[in-house]
Every structure is written in C-alpha cells, then in structure tokens.
Amino acid sequence: MIGQNIFREKHRERFLTVDKAKFSSRLSAEALGVHDYLLSKSDDWIICEAHIRNRFGWGRKKYQRVMRELRSAGYLQLRPIQSAVGRFVGTKYVLFEKAQQEDVKSKSLCLDSEKWLTPRGHFCRPAAKGAP
C-alpha cells in the first residue's frame, strides 16, 4: 500500500525555506547541515569558528574541511576586513543561499571597532547566554 510517508506542519513563524537545488549538488551531509543552520540565523549574524565547532561538536580539522567544501561549492566566501584607518585586520565569512558561480569581488569590509576580532583575526561575536 502506497501512502503518505512524510508529514509536514503548517508554519506561520520560526521556519526556514530551503532551495532544493543544493540537495542535488555533491555537498556532504555536514556541509548541508551547516549551510542550513547558518541560513536559519539572522542576516547580521556573524559566522564564528568557535560557535560552529561547539554547536556541532567538531574539531578544527572537520570544521575546516566543511567550510572549505562550502567555499569550493560557491556557498561561502572569505572577505577581508579593514579598520577605519584602512589597516587589514582580518577576514569575515559571507554566506550565500545559492551557490555563486565565481567569486563576487567586493570592497573590504570596514570596522568602526576591532572589539569582535579573535586573536587569529576572525570577526566573531560571543554567543548570548543560553543561545544554541
């Protein structure tokens, strides 16, 4: 007997719409999961290595492999960050819902303050207490 195998809820708030096209790509389950997780965050949410590694229980090598996979597929880019005086102070991840065919060139991002830079120069905001 053939019947319904997937049951969906009607959502009015707190849900994510996902483009099915990326599921036909060769992304690993980890890369798909991180991509969807990051898309569920607000547009101004800052991608932070420590947060992702803690959330998914990953070590540095696995984190780097997954982020490299997302970059290679065109979903993630690293952009330079400059201080207000034009000094290079680090890099920032930028996530795209759809894969970019080629690297989108943009001006360096400028910071008014360097207070969110990690010791390695990555832009990072500490997670709020109780945040997943």
Overview of the structural elements:
- There is one protein chain.
- The protein is α+β, with helices and mostly antiparallel strands.
- 25% of the residues lie in helices and 14% in strands.
- The protein is built from three helices and three strands.
- The chain has helices spanning 29-39, 49-56, 60-73; strands spanning 76-83, 88-95, 109-111.
- The chain has a three-stranded mixed β-sheet with strand order 2-1-3.
- A hairpin with a 4-residue loop joins β1 and β2.
- The termini are far apart.
Based on the model shown, name its key terms.
132 residues, alpha+beta, elongated
Instruction: List the total number of helices.
Output: 3
Q: Give a short account of the largest sheet.
A: 3 strands, mixed
- The residue-averaged pLDDT reads 76
Strand arrangement in the largest pleated sheet: 2-1-3
Please provide the ordered H/E string of secondary-structure elements.
Answer: HHHEEE
Low-confidence stretches: 104-121, 126-132
Instruction: Please identify the structural class as seen in this structure.
Output: alpha+beta
Shape: elongated
- Beta-strand proportion: 5-15%
Helix share, percent: 25-40%
Number of strands: 3
